[in-house]
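This section describes the prediction task in plain terms. A model, or a person checking by hand, is given the sequence of a single protein chain and must write out its three-dimensional structure as a string of C-alpha cells. No templates, partner chains or ligands are provided. The sample shown here is typical of the held-out split.
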Amino acid sequence: MPEYTFDTLSPYDLEQLARDLLQAELGVRLESFARGRDRGIDLRYASDRANAIVVQCKHYTRSGWSDLSRSLRVEVPKVKALEPPRYVLVTSQSLTPDRKEWICNLLVPYCHGPADVFGAEDLNNLLGRHPDVERLHHKLWLTSVTVLEHVLHSDVFAEQTSEVQHIRRRLCRFVSNASVTRALDILSSSHFCVITGVPGIGKTTLAEMLVVDHLARGVECFRIWDDVADARRVLRVGKPQLFYYDDFLGKTGLRQPEKNADERLLRFISDVCHSPHQRLVLTTRDYILNQARSVLEGLSRADLDPSRCVVSLEDYTPLIRSEILYNHLYHSGIPQEHIEAVVESRAYRDIIRHRNYSPRIIEAMTEVLNVRDVAPDEYPAAFLANLENPSRLWAIAYNTHLTSAAQNALLVTASLADGVRLADAEEAFEPFHRRRCEKYNQPSTPYDWKRALRELEGTFITIGPTYGALTIRFHSASVRDFIEHHLRESHQDQAELVASAVFPDQLSRIGRILDATPDRSWVATAVERFVEIIDHRSGTAWPTQFGNSIQWRTRVESPIVRFIALSRLAGLGNPQLMREQLDAAVQHVLAHVATARQNREELVGLLDVMLERSLPHTDSIDELFAKVRISAYSEVDAQELGLDEYGALVQFADKHPDLVGDDICAELADQFGPFADGELDTLDQLEPDTRLQIYDQLAGIATLLGVQLSVTRDSVLEGINYWQDEDEESRFSDGGGGAGVISDGDLDSMFDSLRR
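The expected answer:
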C-alpha cells in the first residue's frame, strides 16, 4: 500500500485527488463546484435526491487535530441546512479510530459511519486499490520518499539533501501540460529529445520532470556536465539508462566548443538512437541552437527537428496558468499577508491573462528573497509591474549573446507592422544595418539578414506564410515590449533607425513607440525623412481576394492618410520649426482632395488631427483645412455614405458645432434615418457580437442627430444567445473539451482556498 503524507499537495490538488478516488471506488461521477457557493459542498453525487452524496474535503497536513476539529464544528450548521442523505468527509490528516468516531457523532445522522470518513491512511488504501488514479496524479508519486531517494542517489542532480529539497519544491509547483506528452512521445520514438524554447518558458523544468519520471520507473539516470565523454564512461549496454544534458550548447550564449565536440555529440546521439535501452534529453534556447547551426559544421548537417520538443506559451492554457500560479503561491513560503493581498485584490486574474505571462516570472515573484522588501499591499502591483517589464527574460540574451546583425534585425522589426512581408523587412533592414556597420566599424556580409533570421527564429521572431506570402512577427508580445522599451531608452538607436527608415509607416510606428519619452530630438529628423520618402511610397502590401486564391497586392495609402500620420509625428515636436516640410506635403493632399469623392472618415480624421496637433497657420495649411471641411460635408444627400463615415461626420459636428452648422446636421439627419432602417433590416444576418456592436453604433449616431430608431436594443438582445454567466456554478475544467478554460467564478474559488 502507498504511504503518502499528502503534504506536497495543495487544497485544490487534494480535492481533485479525492474526486478521482471516490469516483473510482463508488462507481459514480462526482460534480465539482466553486468553493463557498454551495454552502460548503466540494463534491456531489446527485442523480436523485434519495441517493445524493455530499463530499467535503479538508486539507490539514500543515495543522493539528485541534484545527481540523474546530473547522468541522463550523461545518455542522451548513450540513444541517443541506440535510444530505449521505455526507462524506475527506481529510489529508491521519485519524485514529476515536477521532473518526468523534467526527461521525458530530455529523450524525448525515455521516453514516466511520466508513464515510476518509483520513490519510484511507486515501493511501484507495490509491493502492486504484493505481491508475495514482499514476494520473503525478505530483503525488513524483514527490514520494521512494522517488526522492532515487534522486538523492542518482548522478543527475548534486548529491546533496538541499538539492533534493530543491527538486521536491519544483515538483510540487509543476503542472503537467501538452509539452510533457510531446516529449515522452519523442523519447519513445527517437530515443532522444531536444527541448527548446524561449528563456523562462520551462525547458529545464520539463527536462527534470522527465528525469524524475524515469527515475521512478527504475531507469538509471546520469547528467552530462561538460562533454558526452562523461556519458561514455558510465554507459552500460543492455541496461535502461537516461542521460540529461542541460544547456548543451551554453547556458546563456553559444560557448566555444572543444575541437570536434559537435561530432562527438552527434555520434553519441546516433548510438542512443540505435539502442533499445538508452535515452537522451538535451535542452537549449532556440536562438543558441540557431547560432550553433550557423557556426558548427556537424550541427549544420544534422536534422534535429524531428526530435525537437518546442515548449511554447500555447502549452499553458488558462487553467494550467492558474494552477502554476496557485502552486507557486501555496508552496512559496512567502508571508501569508502577501498571498492574501493577491487573493483580496483578485490580481491573479490579471496575472494569468497577462500578455507577458512566463513561468520564470511567476517563480521569481514567489521567491521569499524577492518579496521581503515589498509591503503586502504593494505586492500585487509589484507582481504585475514585473510582468509589464519583461527585461528579466530578454535583456541578457539581447545585450550579450546576439550578433549585431540579429540585434539590428530586431530593432527594425519593432518599427514595422506585426506580420509584415519578409521582403519589406529585409528592405528596411539593409540601410539600417549598413549604417550601423559603417558607424561602429562592425563586420558585415551580404548574408547578414539571412543569418540573423536563422539566429532569431523560434525565440525572438516567427516566420511563416500569411495569405501566400512569407511574413515576420515577434515571437510574443513580451519580446516586442522588451525591444520597444530598449528603443525608448536608447537615443542613439532611435536616431539611427529614424535616419535610415524607408517606409512612412516605420516613422509613424516609431512615433507611437517614443510618444511618452521626454526627448524629442529625433522628431525633426523623422518629419524630414517622412517627406523625403512619401513621394516614393505609394502604398503597402495587402492581401487581396481574387476568386479562390489570395494574393498580395499593393494597397495605395491615400495622401490624406499619410498626411495624418505626418501631422501626428510633427505634433510630437515643434510643428512651427517644421512648417517648410509640412507645406511641401500639403500640396499632395490638396491635389488629391480636388480629384474625386473622398472617404468622409479620412477627411474628418484629417480635420481632427489638424486641430488637435496645433499645426502652424501657414497659407497652405489654412487652405487645406478649409477645403477639407467643405469636402467632408458637401453633397451628403447625393452620395451613399457608410456607417463609419456617418459616425465620423456626426461626432465631429457634435464636438465642433461652430465649424459645421445646424443646416448640415439637419441634412445628415434626413439621410441617416432611411440608412439606419436599411442596416437594421439586415442585422439578424450578422454574428451576435457584431449585431450588438452595429446597433450600438447606429444608436449613438441617432442620439446625436435626434433620430428615433425603429428597433430597440432589448429586441436585439432577445435574439442573441449568450453563454451562461461566468459566475454560475461550473466544474473546474480538466483541460479536455474545454481546452483548459477556467471561468472567473472557478478561478476565484481556487484562489479563495489560499486564504488564512
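For orientation: The longest helix spans residues 662-681.
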